[in-house]
Amino acid sequence: MNTAFIIILVLAFFILMSSFFTVKQQSSVIIERFGKFLSVRNSGLQLKIPLVDRLAGRVNLKIQQLDVIIETKTRDNVFIKMKVSVQFKVIQEKVYDAFYKLEYPHDQITAYVFDVVRAEVPKLKLDDVFERKDDIAIAVKRELNEAMTTYGYDIINTLVTDIDPDIQVKNAMNRINAADREKTAAEFEAESSRIRIVAKAKAEAESKRLQGQGIADQRREIARGLVESVEVLNNVGINSQEASALIVVTQHYDTLQAIGADANSNLILLPNSPQAGSDMLNNMVASFTASNQVGEMMKKTNKPITKPKPIEPQQSGYEEDTPPEVK
């Protein structure tokens, strides 16, 4: 009798304990009574009738993510693989619809994603697929929301997380990109070379202009110095020809001294014999004399023509008959 009573107490205890159950946060429990839906229990400690009510299932209310990989082709007949990530959750007020209306919600979502992507991508070229992937994601979300809200699911977001063309297509795209970048680099290098050439030409032109200006100033100063030197020599009794010759000889020896002092100068052959100075001086004097004679003749040529005077006989040491005057 005591043993049977103990067994009954133990069974009663287990039955009583089975009447209580807990529901975790962000989840719901479906309770059925004799196979028929009874209620939806939310998080916390809950009670059911033992042997009558049962837990039909638990529904997760957290945001879930489903990754769908689709193979499709573009308008230019390039096959690509796209990865679409769908973030969704069960609407708490529609737990009944989510539990009883859909047997496999993941398969349902995958089918809708396939349908939308294979309808949108063939309208676009490969480059447009990369540029308009957000438009594709928005189209998938819109289609899923219209279909899955009826079943108690809310589509939070859809993302096109990967676009993977065929390996040969990717290699071709990389070559095109590399060629385009090389072309751009060559254009920039050519423009840089052009700028350097133009800048160098401008610098050389400016340098030659300044150099010519400097040479002109130098020669002007040299001429002024020569004039002053000739005036000084004239004041001490040296005429202009001798002064000019003396200056030329002095500059000749100054040039030889400058060439000898520069160790990096090129070889220049100049007359450097002992009589070179005197020869140069004589040549200078002769040239000045000849130039003066030419100048005098040009002055006489430019004078007005006058009646010639009779030629007087030259005085000599012997007698000479003079011709009669022609009338």
Automatic annotation (TrEMBL):
Membrane topology reported for the UniProt record: Single-pass membrane protein
Which Pfam families does the entry link to? Band_7 (PF01145)
GO CC terms: membrane
Please give the chief subcellular localization of this protein.
Answer: membrane
- According to the UniProt record, where is the region Disordered? 295-327
**Annotated ranges, domain Band:** 18-177
Compartments where located: Membrane
User: Which sequence ranges are marked TM in the entry?
Assistant: none
Q: Check the record and name the InterPro entries matching this protein.
A: Band7/mec-2_domain, Band_7, Band_7/SPFH_dom_sf, Stomatin_HflK_fam
Q: Which domain of life is it from?
A: Bacteria
Q: Where is the composition biased (Acidic residues)?
A: 318-327
Query: SMART domains from the xrefs?
Result: PHB
Q: What is this protein called?
A: SPFH domain-containing protein
